[in-house]
Amino acid sequence: MLRTMTRADLGRALDWAAEEGWNPGLEDLEVFHATDPGGFFCAELGGKMAAAISVVNHSPSLAFLGLYLCAPAYRGQGIAHALWLHALKHAGDRTVGLDGVPAQQENYRKSGFVLAGQTKRYAGALRPGHGKGVTSASAADHPLLIEMERRACGYAKPTFCAAWLEPAQTRYTLVHRSNGTPDGFLTLRRCRDGWKIGPLCAPGIEVAKTLLEAAAQHSEDDQVMIDLPQESAPLAAHCLEMGLEPMFHTARMYRGPAPLPGPGLHAVATLELG
């Protein structure tokens, strides 16, 4: 049976993601589900969840695919592929993006996805510093930050970003201000192992460095992970200079017209929802 996930099902899928080494955030579930409650799907056999996938509609023009997982006992039987076809119907005629493992590029291509670039994960401890001009985000900042992120990545995620920017016990959004006006920000969240940063938007590398220095005050000496598209070369170079190490890369692919990233250094919010 192919059906829409419940919140409990999504929690189970995130546990599977953790077992695969994807390291979800401690408070991802509620934000993910609230973004598009009808965009999470599972295959069920004998009362047990066999496979999972998400196709979350962010806007009338774009959806994002993620959390494509199959329990080991059910692999190689066509169950996950049937779920894939079922879930993609949810996107309608929207462009659909994904960040997939490179080994699956050919399979994604058969479903109409075209390679647009790579996203590389860097991991390590951040270098502490003064973080001058950085404060916690306020509710009044949110509309500007959402627009800043839209320009940087090339597509809008208004429902997701509005929830993502809300403060939580293990998720913080920090804003850099010039003359009192926000010109860059990042979100830092505690994960099952260490922390992840995403998104990060900044007008240049100096603001990005200052934001990362401020984030280090929260993460201390713990490992921090950040996912950078290939357009973020200056930020990638700074990560290497700080001693962060590249872990793996994913293939950014789209079915339909690909959005065009705008100016501004950028880190991906999540590999699951874009």
Automatic annotation (TrEMBL):
Enzyme class: transferase
Annotated SUPFAM superfamilies: Acyl-CoA N-acyltransferases (Nat)
Keywords: Acyltransferase, Transferase
N-acetyltransferase domain location: 1-133
GO MF annotation terms: acyltransferase activity, transferring groups other than amino-acyl groups
Domain of life where this protein originates: Bacteria
InterPro entries registered for this protein in UniProt: Acyl/Acetyltrans_Enzymes (IPR052729), Acyl_CoA_acyltransferase (IPR016181), GNAT_dom (IPR000182), YitH/HolE_GNAT (IPR041496)
EC identifiers of the protein: 2.3.1.-
Keyword Transferase: yes
Protein name (database record): GNAT family N-acetyltransferase
Organism name: Alloyangia mangrovi
